TrEMBL record:
Transmembrane segments: none annotated. Pfam families: SnoaL_2. It comes from the Bacteria. Residues 19-103 form the SnoaL-like domain. This is Ketosteroid isomerase-like protein. InterPro entries: NTF2-like_dom_sf, SnoaL-like.
Length: 108
C-alpha cells in the first residue's frame, strides 16, 4: 500500500534515484541534511552528498509509514540494494518550510 506523502517529501523520494541536483532542488537554500553522522548545509552540499551516496551503491527506497513528531514528519522507508546491511528500514525526519524541505535527518 502506497503511503500518502506531503508534496515536498514525495518530490524528494521521486528524485532520490536521479541526479544529486534534482534532490537538492527539493530543499530550501539553507537546508541541512544529517546522514551517517555527517552534516551537509545548503543545496550545493546536499547535491554533492546525494551524488556521492547514489554512485557508491545501487538501491531502491520505498516509503512504508508516515508519522508526525512535533513539527517534524517522520517517514519510515525500506531500502534494499548493494550496501552493507541491506535491506534496512530507515527513518527520515523531515522539517518543512513552505513548499520545501528545511531539514532532513536520516537514521536507522
Amino acid at each position: 500500500m502506497a503511503v500518502s506523502l506531503p508534496a515536498p517529501i514525495a518530490r524528494y523520494f521521486a528524485a532520490d534515484g536521479t541526479r544529486g541536483a534534482d534532490v537538492a532542488d527539493c530543499f530550501t537554500s539553507d537546508a541541512v541534511v544529517v546522514d551517517e553522522r555527517r552534516t551537509h548545509r545548503g543545496r550545493e552540499a546536499i547535491a554533492r552528498w546525494k551524488s556521492e551516496t547514489s554512485t557508491q551503491y545501487q538501491y531502491t527506497v520505498e516509503p512504508i509509514a508516515i508519522d508526525a513528531e512535533g513539527e517534524a514528519i517522520v517517514v519510515t522507508a525500506h531500502l534494499a540494494g548493494t550496501f552493507p546491511g541491506s535491506p534496512i528500514d530507515l527513518r527520515y525526519r523531515f522539517t518543512l518550510a513552505d513548499d520545501a524541505i528545511a531539514r532532513l535527518e536520516i537514521a536507522p
